[in-house]
Each structure stands twice: as C-alpha cells, then as structure tokens.
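Format notes (please read before filing issues)

Several people have asked whether sequences and structure tokens are stored in separate files. They are not. Every record keeps both together, in the order shown below: the sequence lines, then the token lines. Line labels are part of the format and must not be stripped during preprocessing.
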Amino acid sequence: MERFTHWLEVISNYVWSYPVVILCLSTGLFFTLYKTFFVQVRSFRHAITLITGHYDNPNEHGQITHFQALSTALSGTIGLGNIAGVSIAIELGGPGTIFWMWVVGFFGMATKFVECTLGTHYRDEDEETGEVRGGPMYYIQKGMGDRWRWLAVFFAVCVLLGSFGGGGMFQSNQAAAALHDYFHIPPYVSGIVLAILVGVVILGGITRIGKVASKIVPAMCLI
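Then the structure lines:
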C-alpha cells in the first residue's frame, strides 16, 4: 500500500504541475484569441442579463432556469475549489500564485464558454420524459463521431470515480470532523444526516438540484 501511495503521489505531482498549467493556459488562449475573440469581455453584460432571468422562457426545452443552471455548476467548485484549493496553493507557492490564478482564470472563462456551448448544442433529450442530459461525454461522441465513444466512456468513468473523492468524500469528511471537534457530534451521525439530505435532493432530479443550488450557492458565494 505504501508503494502504491508513493507512485500515486509521483504521478499526481507530475500531472498537476506543468502539463495541467500548459493545457489550461494554452487552451484558454486558443479559444480567447482565435475562436471567440475575448468573449469573456465582449459578452460580459449579456451574461449578467442572462442569469438575472431576462431571457427565461418557461416554454423552452430544459427543466431549470439559466440561474439555476449556473448555481448547479458553481456548487461543485465553491469550497473545495476556490477556498481550500486557493489557500493551499498560496501556502505552497506564495502570493505570486494569485497572479497566475487570475491569468488562467481569465482565459479559462473562454474555455468554459466553449464547453457549455458544446454541452448545449450536443445535449440529449429523452423523447418520453423530456429530460435533458448533456456534458463532455455526449459532445465527445456526437461531435467527434462513434469512433471516439471510448473516450466519452473513459471521461464518464473518471468523473464517476472523481465524484466520490473530490465531489463528496472530502467535503463530508471535513464537515464531520469540524462538527466532532467543535460540537462533539459523532462522525457517523453527521454522515447519516448528510447522506439523507443529499439523497433527498438528488432523487428529486435536476429540477430539485437546480432549485436547492439556486438558494444555497449565493449564500456560499457571500460567505
């Protein structure tokens, strides 16, 4: 187990250094300068108008509003991404880390725009229920062809595995640890309560997830 952990750390340290930085920055630059020409600046006012509900139409396809969709997307990054991750990065890399976060974040807005556009364009709608599904696994296969189905499956499996660690395990562990340290609540009690609350939301489908996220995420942003 120690040997496995060692090699996992070696691979992680290699991947999450120059390869990720180069890929994120170069892709963001490509989309910003070539494909969208600074869409994050040109369309900023339109983006604000969009999420404030100006273009909401109850007769459109889809089950949630634009703001609920934004809140659902942000719910997976606020906390672990922009609080814990940022503080760890500053501790390891110093104050200069903030500058490169700004740079990559700015150009990454164009990457996110392209990703969301592809997800919307190649989304899949169930003819019987009207439910809409989308994401990289859909636009990889539909946009690049069936011969790339293996890559779509690989991405879906990686997201599934990642959701257990970075998507839920880390947050629930930290919440249980904090409740135990400060309020002496047994970790298993916190785990059961969190599992029930999350289960109630997830079993309600994307409609309930969007409604709950639209209420919680603004508070998370302010905090």
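For reference, the curators noted about this record: The chain has eleven helices and two strands. The longest strand covers residues 124-125.
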